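Notebook, p. 212. Picked up where the previous page left off. The plan for this session was modest: take the two constructs that came back from the sequencing core last week, fold each one, and keep the raw output in the notebook itself so nobody has to go hunting through shared drives later. Recording the first one now, exactly as returned: residue sequence, then the structure token string.
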Amino acid sequence: MIARTFAALGILLFAFGCAAAQEENKDGAAASENKDEPRRYESKGRVTAGGKAVAYKVIAGETFIENDKGEPVASIFSTSYIADGFTDPRERPVAFIFNGGPGSASLWLHMGVFGPKRVRLPEGPDDDGAAPYDLIANAESIIDVADMVFIDPVGTGWSKTIGEGKTDDYWGVTQDAASIREFIRRWLVEHKRWNSPKYLMGESYGTTRSAALLEALESGWTDIAVNGVVLISTVLNFGLDATDAGNDVGYIGLMPGYAATAWYHEKVDRSQWGGDLERFLDDARVFATDEYMPALLKGQMAPQAERDAVAAKLASFIGLSESYVSRSNMRIPLRRFMRELLRDEGMAVGRLDSRFTGVEVDGVGENPEYDPSAYGIDAAYTAGMLDYFSRDLGVDIKEPYTTLGGVRGWNWDAEDAGGENAYVNVAPWVERAMRQNKDLRVLAANGYYDLATPFFGTEMTLAQPGFDRSRLTITYYEAGHMMYVHQPSLEALASDVRAFIRNEP
């Protein structure tokens, strides 16, 4: 139950150039509409990405997953971008890309950072308002270095169970991974890409999915080895950022993220650190592990003077009053922090991206009305994705498109990874995959202002003994969970992922 409660509150639910750079060509586009067959829409496009003009084919459509009787029981919708001019699969990597939730479609990474067209949000952070929204050619797309397959798991986008299929067979840590593994296997068969370098790229719960996929893909003799995994806003060990009663380590994982948020909103004395954010966060990390964590573990066994000193220092880092921190027993749950930091200004900060703020009518409320960084971007992405599907790719599907929240009753009971009444920890699956695949590399991308999957929780996870640090890269951006909504961070993230695929320093 703990894991489920935290999943509802603490996972990423989500997971943006020159317009003339892309020319969509739908001449000769083909669409399969037989209800007994998977629907399929083909088109062509061209984009200048990474400084290189790339022509590509687009295949948007359904893949049927069958049971052991050969009967279709699920339909997974995906969008594939395959560059022209490559005949040797060894020369062309392929990236399988998905978002998180669980329950989120892949539109965020698709229209936010990797696809050939993206949503352009207001310079901000600021609310996206109402249509019309700007859709522009994406010069940061990675189509220049890899083919891309955007996957919507069952219950998201237009993916669903069919026939005798039951959601219980897909809505769970291992069940979800098994269905995506089968999708990947079928894609490799159809496109004859078994010998291509393969990458998994997931955001938020999508990083959890990546770990479970490594276990599903690389275990057993039918091994589909992966070259690299990109973890965007990582959550592998759910205990390291869950502020539930009795889980003190969650406060340690969050504390430097609180500090970063206070810095951004000028609630700390920046002059003490010479205006240097990196230096400030280094000190916050040291305080979190060397002073804050021992104080929480000692509890009332620590002398009152010691507790008061730690509370005062904590308050100076996270921008709250010393009195509030002391009365909270130095344990400030996430939603309370979101509401308290800017209470005097009548505002709350975002969870996905704490740079965002929202007006709070209730001046004494304990928790924020909602997450300002969620309602600040969702309309633009949904409208942008559906406009792009219908106008550019020729997708003609009348059923509702589930952006987020399509799954209920997720099964967290994953063998060897915790489960019911425990915090799920899939990090050992990544460790094991790295030990058993000498070519597997990992890139973990973090936003400093991400309070949903805080960067220090990721650092603590990846610092455990089983990880080969020589094949692990950790990057940081001055934005939040979806760091790509910030133009400088979008450019940096795309550059880092491109270098990762090329195996450059």
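Okay, moving on. Second construct, recorded in the same format:
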Amino acid sequence: MRAHEAGWAHAVESARGPAWLRPPDDANALVAPLWSSTARKVEGVLEVGGVAVTDLVAEHGSPAYVLDEADFRRRARAFRDAFDAYDVYYAGKAFLCTTVARWIVEEGLRLDICTGGELAVAERAGVPPELLGFHGNNKSVAELTRAVELGVGRIIVDSFHEIQRLAEITEVAGRTTRVMIRVTAGVEAHTHEYIATAHEDQKFGFSISSGDALAAAQLIHEVPGLELLGLHSHIGSQIFDSSGFEVAARRVLALHAQISDEVGVVLPELDLGGGFGIAYTTQDDPSDPAQLAIELTKIVTEECKARDLAVPRLSIEPGRAIVGPAMCTVYEVGTVKAVELDGGAVRTYVSVDGGMSDNIRTALYDADYSCTLASRTSDAPLLLTRVVGKHCEAGDIVVKDEFLPGDLVPGDLLAVPATGAYCRSMSSNYNHVLRPPVVAVNDGASRVLVRRETEDDLLRLDLGPGDRMED
């Protein structure tokens, strides 16, 4: 997939919307599969966790990320219970803050991190280091040293340079570190090319087909300070079809057997990664954790039986599938504009007080989202609408196409579901826009987990004339 340099919106224009999009039977109702479990509408006003978004915006401002604590915990428990024979690592890159890290541990999960910053959050949250898995294709010496000193449970190595760094660090520290080898299985997940991570031509992992993965296993086996736990495979993100996992497992377990035969190491663990999809719109039909557990366990068990292998201890790394549906973003409408297109068609642009700085996924991945009028009921005829942000980019689009009431006016609130994964994590200060807060809601109360940025936050790092670094 190749995007137009000025944004995908310049490449294809249609005022009719995608073929799958249909007007809702009731524009004042929620499409339940897209929302967190406590979300509902009361006389047209969206409530999440028993808190009306009108009250939430009055207290905390707009835009705001709204995290449904009960739903987040329920989804974490669902993975824990369905994959009870697995180690379940929450992928912190989807969304991480100290409170969420604590929730994860409280619900019996482990935590997957990939930078020193995420490690610092885990430390501050009090996550036991043995529950951490440390990913990343270019971990610095400082990051690796800190991980070894803390006793991080496992480090997923991604290059020969990293193995050498760890060999030197563990020798100096006099410690043994448990590692896994990230491998590329040559599997193309059915997803956007930027988030398909197991095909050969990309930056992650050791190639199985080239022999690099086997060579890495041999090298690790020869380093006294490294204990080889197993292999790690991650085939992509937003995946709905288990066939990719089946092909990857077959290739990874073939290498697993080869390492046992040629290196003399019986690997006790295997990580299948994450990437489990969620529903962003009505076209998405994700599997629940119980079904995923059945399918993945069957794939690994049958492949191990065919190769006469003992089934290793398995682990997975859901992130989006836990936090994605548990969060929505609330915006305030600023302007409504009808634009006449060629052929007499009209597109209605609804501008909100956020945009690509709080959700880059539409611009980056051509992602689809849904939304709803969240502050009142409306009986007005529906219009096919494009919800856009306030940034100086034509591609600054939040929801490409949605049927919304034709009487939208400035001051109305819109809510976009399924924004928990990667929206806050990938947010920016483009145009010096302030990042929204993350507000948790539960049992009729709200509390700020990550406060809204202020102009003082922006200016604190900006050293003007006469400012000194120590200030």
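Notes on construct two before I forget. The radius of gyration is 24 Å.
Flagging for discussion at group meeting.
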